[in-house]
Sequence to fold (192 residues):
Amino acid sequence: MSTDPFALFDAWYREARETEPNDSNAMALATVSADLQPSVRMVLLKGHGPDGFVFYTNRESRKAQDLHPGARVALLFHWKSLRRQIRIEGSVALASDAESDAYFATRARDSQLGAWASDQSQPLDARATFEARYEEMRARFEGGDVPRPPHWGGYRVTPARIEFWQDRAHRLHERRLFVRTPGGWAEGLLYP
Ligand SMILES: Cc1cc2nc3c(=O)[nH]c(=O)nc-3n(C[C@H](O)[C@H](O)[C@H](O)COP(=O)(O)O)c2cc1C
Fold:
């Protein structure tokens, strides 16, 4: 049996990309605040490989307060129609400016302007204020490329544990747990 969790992740992710009707790259991101309050929200996986799992967000958002370098986080993928879940625990680091710039440049112009317009997690008096700010940014960058806002960028989660859960008949589900050790990944099977 392979002890490379990334090969197994690739195989399951590829299948999900092909079969899930919506947001197959959506994952729950759980963080913990300085006063130990957990919180969870969905984000989109935008890059992955043996060096980790990358998502992008506003670096002044509520979640960003919890995402200081080295902070512990958890990710969860759930693909309902495949009846599979992947659970990841690890620590987080900022993605590089070059990596964040490169990804930002691939975004639709609307999304690029939205990143400038949004003070994520900050209360707004009215939706109209948000829309006015979007129009302001549209005018500001008219006729040129939209640069990455300084408050927006990527984070990479380096996994320490990855658990693959597969639905099986009679609720005898199967869990394969991979744990990072100094010598590489170790694997164990768990039962429900
Ligand atoms: C399917 C889905 C995907 C999302 N993807 C992202 C994302 O990639 N980045 C992001 O900042 N917010 C994303 N959001 C919005 C977040 O869930 C969240 O509302 C927002 O980031 C603010 O979270 P915070 O207040 O904990 O910082 C997504 C929401 C959904 C439902």
